[in-house]
Amino acid sequence: MGLFDGKKGLILGVANDRSIAWAIAKKIMSEGGECGFTHLPDPADDARKKNRRRVEKCFDKLDSDAAPKFLVPLDVQNDENIAEVMETAKNEFGKIDFLLHSIAYADRADLNDTIDASRDGFKLAMDISCYSLIAVTKAARPILSERASIACMSYFGGEKIVAGYNMMGICKAALEATTRYLAYDLGESGVRVNALSAGPLKTLASTAVGAGDMLKMYEHVAPLGRNIEHHEVGNTGAFLLSEMSDGITGEVMHVDAGYNAMGSPGRMIDLLPSN
In terms of DSSP bridges, do strands 192-198 and 70-73 run parallel, antiparallel, or are they unpaired? Predict the structure, then answer.
């Protein structure tokens, strides 16, 4: 018997097969869960529908029993579109037991020094990366089952200064605060809301914020002396979205080989030249 047998939910934010959201979704489906997916809308002039196709490629190696129930476009800045996605989920599932929000964006021009970020760029990044969690949670509320679980994706740059993360760090800080307040709002109905803070992984999003250099540093600083792997985040994300994590809400759970616990460079000091 699988951990998610009889459970149904939404996976928002898979970009390709290296996405953290996909690692979590794969684990859920391997444990018997049924998932509906969204993808970034494709421009009207994109006959190849590249965004949709990237997500479809993730499904190619799945067994037929684990096939997704639907794949639809989602623009989180469009409340009508969000409502359409929830209506699709309602028609397919009735109620949903889990919702994964793995969505973030900032214009590259606004990922330089924070002091140089534009006002419009700040609004755009916060709208897509933070407010979207409120928007999709509100729209999903009527179809959330009792004891449903919601999870979003954060990063340590929302807690401490991570050079180069800049605007996204501000967005993640706001997202983590939003997680706590939504946990309070939905708590009386039994719905839980948590954030998963993963260490650096090679994903489409991470390339924009210099994850390559971070991988080298984490390997030397983290207590485990290594970087995390996709399946580890997948396991923890699935845990947060399952009934195994009942009693946990409003939390930011770190999956970073212990990096967040360090107060010094740790073993990395051994790499520095001695006097």
Answer: unpaired
Catalytic site includes residue 181: no
Question: Phi first, then psi: what are they for 123, rounded to 5°?
Answer: -60, -45
Tokens 């509100």, residue?
Answer: 138
> Is 273 inside a domain boundary?
no
pLDDT in tens, 28-75: 999 999 999 999 999 888 878 999 999 999 999 787 677 899 999 999
Catalytic residue from among 165, 181, 184, 259:
165
Residue 226 contacts residue 257 (beta carbons within 8 Å): yes
> At 142, which CATH number?
3.40.50.720
Tell me if 263 is assigned to some domain: no
Q: C-alpha angle with apex 129: 147 to 9, nearest 5 degrees?
A: 30
| Per annotation, catalytic residue among 155, 181, 218, 259 | 155
The answer to whether residue 218 is catalytic is no
Which residue type, as a one-letter code, is found at position 241? Answer: L
Q: Domain for residue 3, yes or no?
A: no
pLDDT given at position 247: 97
Domain count, the chain: 1
Q: Give the span between the Cα atoms of 168 and 197, in whole angstroms.
A: 13
